[in-house]
Amino acid sequence: MPHFEMLLAELSAQFVNLPSDRVDGVINASLQRIAETLGIDRATLGEVTADGQDGFVTHCYAKACIPPNKVQSVMTEVPLVMKTLFAGETLIVRDVADLEEATDRENFLRYGTRADLVFPLIVGGELRGGLAFSSATPRDWPERVVRGLRLIADVFANALARRRADQALRESEAQMRLAAEAAQVGLWVWDIPGDTLWGTDRARTLYGMAADAPVTIGLFLDRLVPEDRPRVERAIQQALAGGGTYREEYRIRHPDGQTRWICATGQCQWGGDGRPGRMMGAGIDITERKQAETALRRALAEIQTLKDQLQQENVYLRREIEEHQGATRIASRSDSMRRVLAQVGQVAPTPASVLITGETGTGKEVLATALHEASPRRGRAMIRVNCAAIPAALIESELFGREKGAYTGALARQIGRFELADGSTLFLDEVGELPLEAQAKLLRVLQEKEIERLGNPRPIKVDVRLIAATHRDLAREVAAGRFREDLYYRLNVFPLHLPPLRERRDDLPPLVESFVEEFAKAMGKPIEAVAKSSLKALLNYPWPGNIRELRNVIERAVILNSGSLLRIEPPTLAGHPAAGSASAAQAGPATLAEVERSHILRVLEATGWRVRGAAGAAEILGLKPSTLESRMLKLGIRRPV
Ligand SMILES: Nc1ncnc2c1ncn2[C@@H]1O[C@H](COP(=O)(O)OP(=O)(O)OP(=O)(O)O)[C@@H](O)[C@H]1O
Questions:
Q1: Least C-beta-crowded within 10 Å: which of 234, 343, 498, 547?
Q2: Do 490 and 510 belong to one domain?
Q3: Does ligand 1 lie within 6 Å of residue 332's CB atom?
């Protein structure tokens, strides 16, 4: 074989299985060998840009007599060459001086070229570049040389195409890796016949595998939490048996003892022999999601339990209320009470706020209960708050609730009474005792129909019907600056006044009858009637403690009575606490409430009715002033006027 053809055969052989990172070097060396063999001054390879619009020199060999070709834009510098190449043809120029195309001619001469041979580099029908052989003097290009160089041009074109494809693959692999890393996805490939598992760094971290240690499927299975293992093995078997895909969530126990939840997906690939060749897949750490799910499930279970409890409590409370109501059914016969009850009938179906006024013990709470029970909200329990019994500092959190940590000592979240009463009725007893700041908040709730828990400015909508009660003359309290006028008007939309018992003596007989029946039944006493003289005495007594006092008197009488006729002694006015000289001994055996009342009275008298401060009644009794005040209210103790 002639020398040139042998060279071409040798060069072509070098490109077989040539790693892509060596292609450039071998092309450069080949260009030099060809140029030297054929006595050519310069050999240049240019590649078309990715958009196919231009080209630039990428490989070049030049002898000393001719400078390397520095063409930057082949489109503008050698348009004729490019036109020929795009047509898929070879440009053969014996003497550049004969070229008609001036641009090409001038630029060829500028680069010291007098003769040129240019081959298109075509892959898959697409022009990828050009291979040019140049001479500093005019020369002929024999057919044998042209044929041989065209062959080598094809070899170069294919090598460059392979290098490009390799590069693109590597880039896309790098991008995928980057994306997988960014998404914290671990990629793995299981070579099934060789039983080796390859994984990205992330995958190794996920599965707790050392960076360089070889991994087999057995090692992976050993890492599984034992209860998850059979399920994962089954899923792998199914994928290998033909299912193809695999998706499982399982726990991996790391060598350092920690357990992580992993979600893995995989795809099986079969080899030419029809057997599973490899499985490729990805895994992500879902520990946090799983923990959140568990916490949510636990919370839901807790909510369910609480809901059940609440339902039970509700049933219990309703029964309690019904029983309680049975005992305090409103006994009345007087015209004034009938009028009040008629008003209750009118206002009950509406959502209007109601203000009940009346002396202590006249039955304000009983009336509020009756109103709620006659309203469309009767299906839910009425929520009660005694404003006098709650220390001023706590009243707001009691009414509106508070978030955990709203203030020092607020250890848990507290639902306020307004929220509890949502959809029902809130009974604010002793509303006149509400501190001014709490009054302002109450007014806002009534206007906006939403509350804000302490420590959380997010408003919560509530639908609450308000019934307020007070033994005070609120108009006077407003005048004295102790009660907000605007709140007073808001509450006083529908006022109900309960007259004292002394002004509705007609109610006394039914009340006596009702209490006697209640206590006789509760104590198992066979009482059939009340002595007429007793009834007369009761009617003559002014009842400063109102119905509560009457009830206590009857309770005591039933306790003391033996036989079927009940004798009731009304308290002597002189001995009445409100008269200021209580004497338990004088009144004979007394109920606990009476003993408590007379003791409080004695202390109050001794302190000149001073409740608060050093040596005040509260301090002597070892009670908080607010507690003492609320007890005084309950027991009907008032400073004599
Ligand atoms: N009309 C009535 N029929 C039967 N019992 C009544 C009636 N009115 C009041 N009572 C009873 O009298 C007692 C005092 O009533 P209640 O607590 O409703 O009064 P109050 O005006 O709210 O008192 P305070 O102002 O001290 O809170 C309760 O035991 C209640 O059951």
A1: 234
A2: no
A3: yes
